[in-house]
Amino acid sequence: MHTRGHRASNGTLPDGQKSEDSNGLPPPNPGVRLVHTPDPGWRPGVKQPHPYPGTKMLQLSPEVEGVKMYPFVISAIVPRPIAFISSLSKEGKGNLSPYSYFNVMSHDPPYVTIGCAHTRGRPNHMKDSEQNLLETGEFTLNMMSEWFVESANHTCGSYDRGVDELELAGLMPVPSVIVKPPRVAESVVQLECKLRGTYEVKNTKGDSTGRIMIGEVVLVHVAEAVVNRSQEGKLTVDLAKYRPVSRLGGDSYARICEAYDLPRPDTFWQAQGPTSAAAKAGHGG
User: Which CATH number is 150's domain given?
Assistant: First the structure.
């Protein structure tokens, strides 16, 4: 991940690469490297060491903290995928904005959820994306990759309603097939979606602080260049070619540079049989 905290104390990346090039810029994504798991010798039932044994656990009450929970939430629940949402107002004005309160919830059919936090100073405290989705019930969700992250980030400013962030950021619109909002050409994974439900979020004072939007993916577009197909015909996206970005706390984004595989216990450990350590710990059956 390309964040300041992952550099070694001597200013180099963990694998010995320089953290900056001759122009003072970070190096480009070197690709995704498959590595060992953090503890490849672990066996079922064996206790794994905690890096902070005996540490005091702080307690945060959302009722007491209120909006002060924001910096903690976005720095603790990481990394978060980013939904780059394209929508239209009922008058047909375009809007484009990234949301990291987002994830996929199912696959048959694919459903996604998006969290829209309310902002003071706006009509009904709603951002344009939320208002557009409520008005039209349609949007496209364009996954973000490294090669246009600066352009995408430029769309998250507090622009006036009706400003077309897609044009402002220099991104290219592509007509959708089922829904009216355009897709983003720079994205290699584009999802056409329809709004299926909402849930209003209120704090303990009864104030409306956000809304959770539930959308159904009605059509998927994926660039052939980033697709892998198994012998059984299953399609997957090649992570190294996809180069997705995710959100951390503050202004930080993250990239994927390393990955490791962990087999499901029902497909690996049962075949191996319980170890003596697992049997002693009572986890053998």
Answer: 2.30.110.10
